[in-house]
Amino acid sequence: MPVALDQLAGLNAQMAEGFLAQYGVVLPEDFDAKGLISTLIAAGMMLCQADFEEEVRATVEAVRENLVQYGYRFPQY
Q1: Which of 58, 17, 9, 56 is CA-nearest to residue 35?
Q2: This prediction's pTM
Q3: What is the percent of the chain with per-residue pLDDT over 90, rounded to a whole number?
Q4: Is the separation of the CB atoms in 37 and 9 below 8 Å?
Q5: Helix, strand, or coil here: 30?
């Protein structure tokens, strides 16, 4: 599991457990909140990958164009 996903899932699991505890909901000791959240994040990433990848590429290109307009020149490799 990638480190960022592991850390994000762990943080969300802690927040979820704290939130639920405020309402008197205590999760069973063998419940793997971090594992569940990690699985759901990964599934969401897979579902959105094509759209997300397209948006990231479009953003990179838009930033590149803006930098060129302001006189920045990219090195040629």
Answers
A1: 9
A2: 0.64
A3: 69
A4: yes
A5: coil
